[in-house]
Design a protein that fits this description.
By secondary structure, the chain is of the alpha+beta class. It is built from 4 helices and 8 strands. The chain has helices spanning 2-23, 107-115, 133-141, 154-163, and strands spanning 38-42, 47-52, 55-61, 83-91, 99-102, 125-127, 150-151, 169-173. An 8-stranded mixed sheet has the order 3-2-1-8-4-5-6-7.
Length: 174
């Protein structure tokens, strides 16, 4: 009896595993092209560019923080930073599909915020769409919906996640 139950459970497990694997598209893509040597964010044009030297490898439309004009200076201001930073981390378990971190705040950002008695904020990422259905629905209705991050479509963050390495410089411009 126990052997028969075991055999049936093994067969069921193998069947389920086989069904899932043929239709599963991994969000972790691979990239074998030219190295991304820098990322440029043009806030005014709502574009993000992945560059190899001076050549544009990819270009994406993006959304920004809910108050996109100007440089992020304090926590909660809804602004996306401006200046030179680095890609410094990645989060495969993000609330926004996938995300890669930007090294904001730098020492200058921290010093300014402290000088006015505030905190500079942080946790600035390039990320995909929200995982939560309600948040995804809201984001699809408005532009510039993040708290200061840079948002792209899920398929695009999958490419960016594969192409851009930690340590890559990123220039965010008005």
């Amino acid at each position: 009896m126990d052997r028969r139950v075991f055999g049936l459970s093994v067969a069921a497990s193998l069947t389920l595993a086989g069904c899932g694997s043929t239709n599963y598209a991994s969000r972790f893509k691979t990239y074998n092209g030219p190295e991304v040597t820098s990322v440029v964010v043009n806030k005014g044009a709502r574009k993000i560019y992945l560059l190899n030297g001076e050549s544009i490898l990819r270009e994406y439309k993006m959304d920004l923080g809910f108050a996109p004009l100007g440089h992020k200076q304090i926590e909660g201001d809804g602004k996306t930073p401006e200046g030179l930073y680095r890609i410094d981390r990645r989060n495969p378990n993000s609330s926004y599909h996938l995300s890669i971190g930007i090294s904001y705040p730098n020492a200058s950002d921290v010093a300014y915020a402290r000088s006015i008695g505030k905190r500079p904020g942080g946790e600035i990422f390039i990320h995909g769409e929200p995982n939560e259905r309600k948040a995804r629905k809201r984001a699809s209705r408005v532009s510039d919906w993040t708290a200061g991050c840079i948002a792209v479509k899920n398929s695009e963050i999958e490419e960016i996640y594969a192409m851009v390495r930690d340590g890559t410089p990123i220039a965010l411009r008005a």
